[in-house]
Structure formats: structure tokens, C-alpha cells
Amino acid sequence: MLPRAIPFASPFTSTSRLTLDDDLGVPEPVPKPKPKGKAKTPPKYRPPKELPQLDEDDLEEQFVRGSGPGGQATNKTSNAVSLIHKPTGTRVFCHETRSRETNRKLARRTMREKLDELFSPPGESARDLKAQRERQKAAAKKRKARRKADAKSGATPSEDRGVEGEPGEGELMQDER
Q1: What is the pTM of this model?
Q2: Fold assignment, 56-119
Q3: Pairwise CA distance, residues 159 & 149, whole Å
Q4: Between these two residues, 13 and 128, which has the higher pLDDT value?
Q5: 3-state SS, one letter per residue, for 26-87
Q6: Residues 107, 113: contact at Cβ < 8 Å?
């Protein structure tokens, strides 16, 4: 008697599903059940805001002597950068490193950030958007910690604090006072 042959699906065939004969006794794969509960949606992706480009003709750059800690070398070299944006009169001074080139790059980045804050509507500058994202992350972390504490203590989320906007036990609404 010959052994039973199991059909083999080549990865190069156009059929993506392997079908088995019923007489072989091999069951069809059972599809996985869909998870129950709230479906998780991916977080909204907002690419970082582009800072305005600087036109080199609008900039006036000076290299001045640095000051502060660092001793004689800091006081003797002209590696601090003073950058002025002519159309707006915005001035930036940078002496964060001992390198003149690094200070030039940092001064230009700071100038772009200042111009972004100057020309963007309130709350729309890159710095404001970053602060808003940080506040949202902190609030989400706080909510998660509160839910975890409630689950650990066995209390329901609406027991003491009340549902958002509704008074809890011992609290009165403004109209009832």
C-alpha cells in the first residue's frame, strides 16, 4: 500500500490559499476570532511643523568675543555669534560652544524659531505645538495611572470623582447650592 500524499502548494503559484482534499482528513484552518471590546485606533500623526527658511541676504552676522566661564581662551577668541534679521530687527546671540561653526548653526536655528513664533498665529508655532503635545501626553499618563489605581482598588471610575462634568458623591451642582 502506498502512503498518502499531502498536496504541496508552491510559493510561486498564483493561488495564495492551500486547499486540501476532504479524504485526507486534514482540517481547514479556523479563522482567528476578532478581539472584542474597544478597537484601538492609531494615534494621529502630525509631522513636526516646518520652521521658516532664512534668506542669507536678510541676515547680518557678527563674530564677537565670548565671555563667561572658560578662562582666557573663551575671552580671547571671537567665536560668539550675533545674528540680526534685518526686516524684523530680531537679534540672536549664541555662545553655547567653543566652536564658531556650531554657534553659527545654533544661532540660525534659534533665529528660525523666533521668526516662527513671530509670524505664526497664537498657539500655532512649533514651540506651542510641542508644548501642547507634551500636555496631552502628561494628561494621558495621568488618566492611565488613575484607571490603574481604580482597577487595583476595585472602585469604578465614576464612584468618588464622578463622570467628567457630573458631580460625584458629596458634590453639588451649581444650581443646587
Answers
A1: 0.49
A2: Double Stranded RNA Binding Domain (3.30.160)
A3: 13
A4: 128
A5: CCCCCCCCCCCCCCCCCCCCCCCCCCCCCCHHHEEEEEECCCCCCCHHHHHCCCEEEEEECC
A6: no
